[in-house]
Every structure is written in structure tokens, then in C-alpha cells.
Amino acid sequence: MSSSSPPDYVLGHSEAELQRLEEQARFFGDLTALVFREAGLRKGMHVLDIGSGAGDVALLAGRFVGSSGSVLGVDRSEEAVTAANARARAQGAKQVSFIVGDAGTIKFKRTFDAVVGRFVMMYQSQPAEMLRHLAGHVCPGGLLIFHEIDTDHLVSYPRVPLFEQITSWIVSTLRTSGADEIMGLKLRQTYIDAGLPAPNVLITGRADGGADSPAYGVLVGVLRSLLPAAERFGIADAKEVQIDTLAARLRDEVVAANATILMPLLIGAWASKQLNGAEGSAT
After folding, report:
1. Rounded distance, CA 278 to CA 283, Å?
2. Are the C-beta atoms of residues 103 and 74 closer than 8 Å to each other?
3. Which whole-number Å values give the CA distances from 39 to 31, 146, 147, 194, 272, in the listed order?
4. Alpha-helix runs per DSSP H in the chain
5. CA 46 from centre of chain
6. How far is C-alpha 118 from the geometric centre of its chain's CA atoms?
7. What is the percent of the chain where pLDDT is above 70?
8. What's the whole-number mean pLDDT along residues 192-205?
9. How far is the C-alpha of 60 from the C-alpha of 48, rounded, in Å?
10. Residue 75 phi/psi, 5° resolution?
11. What 8-state DSSP symbol labels residue 132?
12. Does 55 have pLDDT greater than 60?
């Protein structure tokens, strides 16, 4: 793989993975909505969403821009685009649509009021270069809004050994695949390196516990999608993991310890494209 080639999307694009993305979006969606509100996403805007996956971020943006705006989602996976378009139709979100494309190279004959993305830059080998390219599709004064993770603070209190093991498997697999599991911490400098103004940065997260928390399923769902790669890299063995009972075992350990688990921090960044910026020209 050349230095300019993006890492493979190690989680894949299976039907099960797309369903997992929907579950993950329900867990983290209000945190992304907070970033969108703070950044100034509003009615009537025309938005480009990159790395759309199952379409949740684009559909969320669609609620912000309303029927007078539009959202175009782009993803490299035909399966994901087909599923996302079906979801938009089912929800009556006529202002939201999806196309197949590589956000790092795609060109448009128009500009957008905002470019958004969640958990996208972590899979880019040169995120500043991609951000510079995307800025070329944003009109002067438009917004660039990204939401990424930081896995450096995955902790439990009191300590839950199984939580630590699961998060270790996940982080090690992501890192070995070439993904940047602390991309959120790098967003500020990435904007600057792309020739954009220093962004506003907002850090949020979820601390959870108890018998009814969805966090266990969300966390184990990530590992389930990563498990083939984890085995290939020699990080985990399916017999050791016992994925089908893992969420229940994690819940039982957390509840027995009266513990709180801290899920990955989410870091949002946004900046406006300056009128005389060096971000790149629109196409």
C-alpha cells in the first residue's frame, strides 16, 4: 500500500455491518447533533457528507437542513449506497441522496455550504490532504465539520478486566489495519495543516453502566465486525472471544462490579472556509 492510499476499511460493508452502524448511530447520534448545532448547520443549507456508510450522518444532517436544503452522501461501497438510499426513501427524506464515489478524489461542478463526516478521517492515510481537497468543494464562508474518536481514554471504574480485554482487541486491530484510533485528538492540527483556520473543538463522550445499557452491544458489535481481521492479524482468536455471549458476559461483569465504563471519546471540529483562504479552489 502506498503512503497516499487509504487503509482498507477494516470493518467491511456487509449487511450485518450496515446494521451495526445504525445501532452505533443511535448510541452516538445526539453527540453528533450537538456538534452540528454548535457549528451552525441550519435550514436551507446544501451539505456534502463523506464516507456515508449506512447513511445516518447524512440523514441527521437532513433534519437540520430541512426540505429547503439538501444532503448528498458519498461512499465507496455500492452496497452501502444502495442501503442508504433505501433508508432515505423509507424515511421520506427527499432532500437526502447518496452516490458511489471516493471522497478523496471526487469532483463536483458545484460547491456546498458544508462538508461533514463522522469516523472518516481515521481511515485516511493523509487526512490533511483530503480535508484540503474537500475544502475546494465548499463555498466561501462554508463549514467543514468532522467528528472523530479518541480511544486513549477507554477506562472502567472499578476495573472490569473483560472491558479492558475487549477494548484492547478493538484498538489493536484498528491500529494494525492502518486506522488512526486517536484521530479525534489530531483534528485541530489537521485543519491547520490543510490551510484552514484553527477549528473550534468539542469533546464529548458516554459513561455508562447498569443492566440495561446499550453500550455493551455497541462495543461488542464493533469487535464482531473486526473479528476476522483480528484473527488474521493474530490479535484474537474466535474461540477465545466467544463473540455470541460476549455482550452478556461484559454486562454481568460491569453490573457485578457496580462499575462505570467510559466509551471512546468523540471529538468534533468545525471551521469556516475563509474568503481568501488557501484551502484549494472549487471545481
Report:
1. 15
2. yes
3. 12, 10, 11, 19, 9
4. 15-39, 56-65, 78-90, 127-135, 161-177, 183-193, 215-232, 238-241, 243-256
5. 20
6. 3
7. 92
8. 97
9. 12
10. -145, 150
11. H
12. yes
pLDDT for 21: 78
DSSP string, 57-103: HHHHHHHHH-TTSEEEEEES-HHHHHHHHHHHHHTT-TTEEEEE--T
- Start-to-end CA distance of the chain, whole Å, equals 28
DSSP code at position 139: E
Q: What DSSP state is assigned to residue 211?
A: T
Nearest alpha-carbon partner for 266 in 164, 127, 153, 129: 153
The answer to whether 157 and 259 are in contact (CB under 8 A) is: yes
The pLDDT of residue 25 is 85
Total Cβ atoms within 10 A of residue 277: 16
Please tell me the number of Cα atoms within 13 Å of 149 on its side-chain side.
21
